[in-house]
Amino acid sequence: MEPTATILHADLDAFYASVEQLLDPSLCGKPIAVGGGVVLAASYEARAFGVRGGMPGRRARELCPQLIFVGGHFKDYQRLGDAAINVIKDFTPLVERISIDEAFADVAGCTHLFGPPADIAMAIRRRVRAELGLPISVGVARTKHLAKIASQVAKPDGLVVVDPATELEFLHDLPVELMWGVGPVTKSRLAEMGVLTIGQMAKTPGWSLERLLGPAAGAKLAALAWNRDPREIKTHRRAQSAGAQSALGKKPAEEWVFRPTLRHLADRVASRLRAKSRPGRTVTVRVRFADLRSVTRSLTLDAPISATGMLAEIAEELVRTLLADHPDEKTISLLAISVSHLETHTGLQLDLPLGLEDEKRRPSAKKGMARWVADRAVDTIRARFGWQAVGYGSVALEISRSVPDEFRELAEKDL
DNA sequence: TCTGGGGTCCTAGGACCC
DNA sequence: TCTGGGGTCCTAGGACCC
């Protein structure tokens, strides 16, 4: 029997911009951009001028002088994104959310209730439009990869169902950059081999792709080009890391610059780790220099941490050694902290450091206890009065926030 | 005139162990 | 003593995604 296409990929169109047009109908049909210094999202009217997400605001204005910048109703993005996902969950519990505005679903088990997958996709689109006022595109196919491509092809505000009988004909005419995992670098490497379409990739020998792109990426793309995608819907997956970063413009690579910034970043990251009882063992810092090159340093501890002070000190030490290794770099443009090798502590057990004293990789137990008490006090105050209620003194004020905290939170994965 | 902030996964070399 | 193979962990860098 012919296999059926039961995987859906649903993707809200130009999400932030659509929400702004929903909240202020006078913006409908006009080129708008969410953001200011940098474009966080652009409406389709703005995209027609070449405006793209991530683009500097100045550049966007050059491309489209009548572009309207809007501030960003971040709480509404979260609310409406959740609501759209919940519409999908009304059909099946097998939903894998991959970002605020995008999810996969497997409807194999609910067709007896709601009809064939194409009908379910239409119902989802209808309901999101009627109940939320937002356009959403849906792709339906036999695999996640193809469903995702189908939703891209369906945009804006469309539906594409890929019949398993003709899926390769559909897939092979499309350009390689529509594939998951093919970005600018891979695209140009493939182009050098004369591979522009997914069909051409499918005809390229596997060993050739592997030599060009590495064993993992090569084998993966070779399989995807034939629509062999073994991935299943994963309803909950835990985060592997948590981090925070801050662009600085151009600042001297000096202690008085990076210390307060790292304190602030450590505070953001560590309080998230504590809130979910997920301390981590590996601390990574990243420094970007003025020329946009960036360098990382990391340290893996014997015991996991989630204390702000501990994280901040380790990060500072890593940045010091990093800068010492690059004595010619006088200017930095970004600092980042990330914690990985996250562990899971259930219940009330937080990360009282258990290690022995004196060894570099083992946080001191006594110092750890004092900080644990201090962190708990900060967490409690914030739980009651909000994140801004307490912070690291002058630090909180000195950070120039190019992006509001509410926006940062939208991108945070559940730990 | 040089893209913000949150993530995932892969690679390659070296250390270390059996 | 020399040679060799395999596995795991750590570190640094890079491509990619939303």
TrEMBL record:
Sequence intervals crossing the membrane: none
Cofactor binding: number and manner: Binds 2 magnesium ions per subunit.
This protein's UniProt keywords: Cytoplasm, DNA damage, DNA repair, DNA replication, DNA-binding, DNA-directed DNA polymerase, Magnesium, Metal-binding, Mutator protein, Nucleotidyltransferase, Transferase
Catalytic activity: DNA(n) + a 2'-deoxyribonucleoside 5'-triphosphate = DNA(n+1) + diphosphate
GO cellular component annotations of the record: cytosol
Subcellular location field: Cytoplasm
Domain spans labelled UmuC: 7-183
A single GO BP: DNA-templated DNA replication
Main location, first listed in the record: cytoplasm
Pfam families on file: IMS, IMS_C
Cofactor: Mg(2+)
A GO molecular function held by the record: DNA-directed DNA polymerase activity
Site (Substrate discrimination): Y16
Positions of the catalytic residues: E102
Keyword flag Metal-binding: yes
PROSITE patterns for the chain: UMUC
Known EC number: 2.7.7.7
Family: Belongs to the DNA polymerase type-Y family.
PANTHER family, sorted: DNA POLYMERASE KAPPA, DNA REPAIR POLYMERASE UMUC / TRANSFERASE FAMILY MEMBER
Quaternary data: Monomer.
UniProt name for this protein: DNA polymerase IV
Organism per entry: Allomesorhizobium camelthorni
Upper classification of the organism: Bacteria, Pseudomonadati, Pseudomonadota, Alphaproteobacteria, Hyphomicrobiales
